[in-house]
Amino acid sequence: MNPFSTKTYKGPEYFIDREKETEKLLDAINSERNLTLFSHHRFGKTMLIQHVFSKLDNRKYQPIFVDLFATRNMVHFTQKLTEVLYDRKIILDNGFNKMLGSLGASMTFDPLSGNPEINFHLSNRESIIKSLPEMFKQMIKTKKAVVVAFDEFQELASYDEDITEALIRTIMQEFPQITFLFSGSRKSLMKEIFTNANRPFFQSTQMMELHEIDRDIYAREVFTMLEKNKKRFDEEVIYRILDETYCHTGFTQMMLSRIFSESEEKIDDFIYEQVWYDILEDYKAMAREQEFLLPSLQWKTLLAVAREEFVKAPQSREFSLKYNLSAPSSMARSIKALLDKGLIIECGDKGLRVYNVFIQKNLQKLYYS
Ligand SMILES: Nc1ncnc2c1ncn2[C@@H]1O[C@H](COP(=O)(O)OP(=O)(O)OP(=O)(O)O)[C@@H](O)[C@H]1O
Ligand SMILES: [Mg+2]
Questions:
Q1: What CATH class has 284-369?
Q2: What pLDDT is attached to residue 105?
């Protein structure tokens, strides 16, 4: 089996580092403190929550993980929550049917697969919203401490209903015995939701940002995994992978996973070059099509950021002159648009960089005119 997971959580032996972060989350849960976890995409938030949940003593805790990805309104929200409660058998049959009744929802079984489907109706929006607290009331009927993680929580900011945040915040206050974890990837948006004094969640949770895994710790754990799997390797090649992908977990793991499965005798420079070339080919079209998807200045800015690797002062005259860009005000708009689209990210003191490492390397190879 390939030890470098790229999809689901497979257990602690495949999970790299995050020891301090795991402690911090466990401590928040033990102290019944609500916490918000945020970072750019693919740094490992979802995996970290899964890891932490797997460590909880299941005689004492009832962890509930709700993925809000692609939900657009409170009806979707409630539907997702209900599905999780049903799948995990958290609310028992009687209570569950009663709850569905009060939500105006019904359950049918797919005639082919036999899988249950819970059907909600948008027209019942009002009663669904009203019944939401009842669902949480049902959840706490267990003797265990309930921990609810809402992943992709930033989706709430674009829900059809304006009252969503206030609604969830009220539930949070009504059920102090439940620990809430909120996790989300639009860093600026998550900060806005939880640190803006005019929004309901203001200062209501502990804020925790996820960063890169430390390079040396990452390398050590990769060496150990390779040794356990009896794979020979050049240490230098592993460091090269970590550096070329900036230890951005999702991209690093993808490269490690591919190189593990495609190498035979040994992981060396030769196989590195081959796998790296193949991955870049996979992203070539995606890199090029940005030219047609973006307005001209944004495309030129993206290319320039890729070329520079990291840009500290994107509105400076120097940067503009070097790449024949535009005036500071237009540059500010262009940068903001690229940040909003998630094509570039802010990396602390280092400055801005292209988010997708493989797209960045492809862009660096294109001609700049
Ligand atoms: N500590 C880790 N050890 C091993 N693999 C990891 C670790 N953290 C993350 N990964 C891998 O990196 C990838 C991205 O992780 P994950 O999906 O958890 O990131 P995320 O921050 O939730 O991303 P998004 O914001 O897109 O939801 C996954 O393929 C996952 O398997
Ligand atoms: Mg995630």
A1: mainly alpha
A2: 81
pLDDT at 42: 95
pLDDT band of residue 369 (cuts 50, 70, 90) is: low
Q: Name the 3-class secondary structure at 184.
A: strand
Q: Measured in whole angstroms, how far is the alpha carbon of residue 185 from the centre of its chain? A: 5
Do the beta carbons of residue 247 and residue 218 sit within 8 Å? yes
Q: Among all chains, which residue has been given the structure tokens 């203001």?
A: 202
- How far apart CA 353 and CA 45 sit, in angstroms, is 20
Mean pLDDT of 200-213: 93
Ligand 1 atom 15: the closest Cα is on which residue? Answer: 44
In the predicted model, is pLDDT for residue 176 greater than 80? yes
Over range 31-45, report the average pLDDT.
95
- Centroid of ligand 2 to alpha carbon of 48 (angstroms): 9
Q: Which CATH architecture has domain 18-209?
A: 3-Layer(aba) Sandwich (3.40)
The finding on whether 42 has its CB within 6 A of some atom of ligand 1 is yes
Beta-carbon contacts of 17 under 8 Å, excluding residues fewer than 6 positions away, are 213, 214, 217, 218, 221
Numbered ranges of CATH 1.10.10.10 in the chain: 284-369
Instruction: Tell me the CA–centroid distance for residue 152 and ligand 2, in Å.
Output: 7
**138: closest CA among 178, 180, 181?**
178
Phi, psi of 39 (to 5 degrees): -170, 175
What is the Cα–Cα distance from 133 to 136, expressed in whole angstroms? 5
